[in-house]
Amino acid sequence: MNNSDKNQIWDLFTSDKKSFCVISHTNPDGDAMGSALAMKLLLKKLGHEAEVLVPNIYPDYYAWLKDADKIIIGDEQRDKAVDCIEEADILLFMDLNKVRRVEGLDEFLLASDAPKILFDHHVGPDEVFKLQFARTDVSSTCELVYEFISEFDKSLLDKDIADCLYTGIVTDTGNYFHGNITAGTFRITADLIDLGIDVLEINQKVYNTFSESRIRMLGHSLINRMEVLHDKETVVMYLTKDDLKKFNDQEGDTEGIVNYGLTIKGIKISALFIERAQYIKISFRSEGDVNVNQIAVNYYDGGGHKNASGAYFYGSIEDAILRFKQALNEIEL
User: Fold this and answer.
1) How far is CA 230 from CA 55, 236, 238, 283, in A?
2) Residue 2 above 70 pLDDT?
3) What CATH number is given for 212-330 in this structure?
4) What is the mean pLDDT of residues 112-130?
């Protein structure tokens, strides 16, 4: 990203009325939800038409965010999702670096001639994006959205946008526990509080409204599905399809489980393997200078950040875990 990209994006946002399709990734998390909804609210303020599109349903603990109930869910509203893409003047991608992360809709996105704009904080973005506001030295895409709005017209920020941005920041940092947290992250948070957000209320909605089955699945993960590799300072956890069925897994129920591995004294790496219908979904977390992104990129179909990355594996969960253990033996972390 360069300043000319940022300025060109703002020029587009403040030009004649346009239709935007604001898109984020499969299994939308707090940063995906917060950044996409904040951008929709901004675009509406600037006089544009805007819809948010995600490939599948989001966790219910984000349903309180402004206009979350108006999000187009790709695998439930396919015709509406395709119309959003094909009728848009501009495709605006939030919190993803690869178009293929919009599962089930990527072919329509790539076929569109509409300009593709990216706001993101992951490494290695696709080359299809005409304009980018992308940096890897920030906590979240929501932090970038705040910086973008503040630089050009801070008066456009309001409580609804602030609620969205705080949600992305607090979740992508694990409640300010990991990620690229800087003094600027806390200054932004203070500004959002000044805009009227209720930190205690949002934290309650995001972290303390879980179902009983989710908590029981967490307990099962820690008691029955966790292996500690003391010599590698690593924790490996997994959940099978039968586990997910037993605990009535809902979207978002496995979010955050991987972080528990790092709460063990002396552990520097935590990995969670989840057996889904068509692939194994993997989450990696690490402490300090330990770079788990190189495992996600070099051993799996994945990527992300130094201390927090994700990946997919197309095979058995046993083979996915075996490959991880081989990676621990082969690379210098």
Assistant:
1) 39, 11, 17, 19
2) no
3) 3.10.310.30
4) 94
Per-residue pLDDT of 5-48, as tens digits, reads 999 999 999 999 999 999 999 999 999 999 999 999 999 999 99
Q: Kindly state the DSSP code that residue 57 receives in the 8-state scheme.
A: P
Average pLDDT, the chain: 95
Q: How far apart are CA 182 and CA 138, in angstroms?
A: 8
* Partners of 312 in the β-ladder: 281, 301
Strand partners, 308: 285
Residue (of 330, 325, 284, 324) closest to 305 by Cα position: 284
Per-residue pLDDT tens over the stretch 191-231: 999 999 999 999 999 999 999 999 999 999 999 999 999 99
Share of the chain above pLDDT 70, in %: 98
The CATH number corresponding to 3-206 among 3.40.630.10, 3.90.1640.10, 3.40.50.1820, 3.40.220.10 equals 3.90.1640.10
- Residue matched to tokens 């848009």: 88
Q: Name the H helices within 154-254.
A: 159-172, 183-194, 199-207, 212-224, 241-246
Residues in the chain, total: 333
Q: Crossing angle for the helix pair 30-45 and 159-172, nearest 10 degrees? A: 160
User: What DSSP string runs through 10-50?
Assistant: HHHHTSS--EEEEE--SS--HHHHHHHHHHHHHHHHTT-EE
Instruction: Say whether 275 sits in a helix, a strand or coil.
Output: strand
